[in-house]
Amino acid sequence: METEPCREEREDPAVPAVRESLHQLAGGDSPAKLPCGPAEEGKEPAKTESCADKSKNVEVEAPADPEKSADTGCKEKRKLRKTNSWKMVRFQEPSTEDDVLERDSAAESLFPECVTAEWTSSSFEDLFVADDWQDITEDRLLRKKVVEFGAPDTLSPTWGQAVTVKMQCVLEDRTVVEKDCRLALVIGEGDVNQALEECVMSMQKGEITLLLADSLYAYGLLGREPDIPAWAPLLYQLQLLDVSEKPDPLTLPIADRIRIGNQKRERGNFHFQREEYSMAVRAYSMALDVLTTCRRDGGEKVEEEEEEVRDYRVKCLNNLATAQLKLERYDEALHTSRDVLTLEPNNVKSLFRLGKLQSDMGEYEEAMEVLKRALKLEPATKAIHVELSKLVKRQSGDRDTQGWKPKPAELLGENITPFLIPSKEKKASGISWKFILGALVVALSSLVTSMILTARN
To answer: What is the mean pLDDT of the segment spanning 156-183?
Structure first.
């Protein structure tokens, strides 16, 4: 089954003014396109607010033409650069210093008091066979070395607990690719790669450790564009700052739920871009569990909060349906698309997906009605016209098939299913092929018999 070749535009709840400026920059309304996939949100999401990002940053897409960006009406001069953890492009205030070191410079190490030869110069090949490193996994592809021990009486975090770590990560040439002074994650929910989750569960609070991870536990064959190549091992420096139980989403403020839900959704988009669709479905499902306005204490709901959460649920459900289609879970995608229309009846993306699914499942009348609704909302969308044309052809072909009447079962025997296709009348032929075949067999038998008799004589 084909999926709709289109994208979902990413929005940030904190940037209505920037969205409006970019909209004016684009020149008003753009040609209608069907937004139906998370493919544009391929960057891995920032998990926490970093210590380097204390200023209010807004996540936007950079304009295509740098000359036009000066005309957006922004009075303050802004600068694009990469943030510390997940290489998300954001607007940030320019520094007052002329010669500014890059954010990912080794000079800004988060552990200046723990600089070791392993961290600065040792080859990864030597570290993988070093005797003073501990194996976290039996395959010796995930190893650690404790630099500073933590509190001796504390327990290591377990599956499902929330932890906060300080971490930085380098490639073998010591290029810093990840850095965060307060990275919050829930163990087992896929907020980070497997290497970090496995290592954190072996640490104690306050412990500082070096972690050497083979690419199989990091970013594998695909790497992570643009900074981590394929099959690249990574060296981490970690400190476990805090361990706590995972908070109940129904007790959190709505703003925190939206923040956590969007982090889960963006993580799903990261997996979707890597064609890891099962992990994307899992991330979107966890985001939907958080994106709710229900309260544990039964308090009153605020209409503005309801609307904001509903918008993010619609985005997440649309992404979930797209991932389900990639996994060929058509019934689940159909159910998810209907959930979107329950929240937003005029969502063109979901109308198109629902109509296409119904058409492929043979529900032609329902599909025609849904696709006509989508076409009425966006008459310039080519994909809807194409799908309607396919549907009309399918309907005409189905009517031709239904024109044939099945033969009565009693004429064909009790155990023979009636045929829907009429049998063609046999043309009378002069000599039956059975007669010719029988004559051939008799002639051959006579020839063989005569040869045997001759040989005996």
So the answer is: 95
